[in-house]
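[Solved] Which block belongs to which protein?

Original post:
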Amino acid sequence: MKNFWNEEIMDIPVCRDISQNWQSIRDEALAYLDTPHPYSRDKSPTIPYPIYRVPTIDNPEATERLYEGQWGIAPLGVKRSKDTNHKSSSNIFGASEKFLEKYTKWKSGKTIDENLEYASTKFMFFHELLQKHDEGCLMSASLSLLTPGTIIKPHFGGDHFIRCHLCLVNDEACSITVNGETQKWENGKITAFEDRLRHSVEHLGTQDRLILIFDISIEYAKKYIKDAEFQSLVG
């Protein structure tokens, strides 16, 4: 079974466009991170990914913290998918969507939709780029800021979609492991995998790692990726 779809994902026009314009997206992201957020009580442009407890991979009866360190997230304003057929799929932040809706409201005093509306005004280039492609080509998009020393433990995410990481600011000592295979990010390149597979992240570097996370439904991706193994994925 293939764990990463980095080359195949480039057959999708919107992915090629995002990758080719990564520097402009990076510049918008860095400007966003440098701007005090009007909805945040501490003016931070990101919110910490909640440190909640989840069943461990090896012992479902036990629980442990999902990650250790500092992991900040921020939506980019992409509206939620209207596709109701994949209720187990995630939007915006991942499989813990409902929990994060409540968390975002508590942290910022605003709903996720209100935060999306604000974010859309800060990522004008990114949204203009998406308008060149099919409506709903992305299910969600957010920034993920990981500080040195952070460990995200092995876990499973949602299904029916491919999770894509566009690297905006890299650190060579930061890596992701999917189903036992480890890769490192590269500036301007997309790392793509099924979020339902067991995956983890280890940041042993010295500078923050910044990526754009976006999700593409497998059903949509199959329109462009004709690889036989990819076509066999459950969409």
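(Second protein starts here: sequence line, then its structure tokens.)
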Amino acid sequence: MSQQVELSNCALDARDTEPLHGGASFGLGHRLYRTGWILAWTLLCAWTPRTLHFWRRFVIVLFGGKIARSAHIYASARIWYPPNLVMAEHSCLGPRVTCYNIATVTLHKYAIASQGAYLCTGSHDIADAHFQLIARPIAIGENGWIATEAFVGPGVTVGEGAVLGARGVTFKDLPPWTINVGNPAARIGARIMRPAGPSEPC
């Protein structure tokens, strides 16, 4: 697991703000930005029909997301901070996905986060008396698949073609082209792709 810490520029020092006593973890400007983002998503995107991926991409890009034109983002997905979302061609955030991207979340080509998956870049320093907020980026490699209601923790890299099975939980990197299930996720085999054959006639 990567040890890189990637806090937002607006993250505050817990020694100064004391979040355990109700203090803020982020500056006022950041909180106002996120309020605007939540309102925009709720009013402009959350109710939209399934097929309007182009419109949702457009709104996320307006708020700073780096989204390829062929990426799919469903209306019920929840994105915490659009500037920290990077989606390559044909990647997908499925229905009810939570993208808690205090640090950057990157989905490479054809990477999929399925229904109800949770991509969590944020945590707290449990050894710190002030409970400092920390964050580490998540990357899902090309052709990687995070299945239904699976959880990916801070700092995890899901290798190319790797699978995290339904309701699986990982706080460690997943090697490329592996199948991983359970809590904590364990490797149960290799993912072997069949060659693409000719299309069958209707």
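Accepted answer:
You had them paired correctly. Confirming on the second one: The domain at 24-189 is CATH 2.160.10.10 (UDP N-Acetylglucosamine Acyltransferase; domain 1).
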